[in-house]
Amino acid sequence: MHLKAENRVFGLFSNVSVSRNIPDCFTMIEKIMASLESLPTEDLLNIRKNLDELIKAKYDSDLGKRKGKRAKVKISGNVEIEREKEFFFKYHKIIIQEMSVNGLVFSIKGTIIDGDILCVSFRVPSTGEKKIIDCQAVRVQETKPGTIPEYEVAAIAVGKDAVKDYKDMLRKRGQ
User: Fold this and answer.
1) What is this structure's pTM?
2) Which residue segment(s) compose the domain that 139 sits in?
3) pLDDT over 90 (residue 34)
């Protein structure tokens, strides 16, 4: 079994020497892959769907969705995407759905990319005071596909230094 796995992985590299002590995780993955090769396409698609859900749950727990509760709100506002500023100034309308001390979740009809720096502005409903928050998109999920897709974006608040670094990166790209 080990020799067959080694040949499949290192088949083209005859000068690669492989020790006989293959890590357990490597052999486990090889066994899983070997057992998957004999399954019909329909079962493989089901496995892929389940794996996608598992990866999303792991990703959300590690990086994106927080376990604690955010305040559920429905506040309209505007967002300016830093990456678009070099071409045109455009405010996208958003609906803020959840807020916390260091982040927010909103829906937008415009394309946002993971890692985008955003300038979110809205008015506090109780006082009318205008708030402007610089934040970075950490999770972007398409909720309504189409010609003008709608996205749900989770963003964390960032400082002026992060905005400055992002602007410098945009300015220096392609040099």
Assistant:
1) 0.57
2) 71-172
3) no
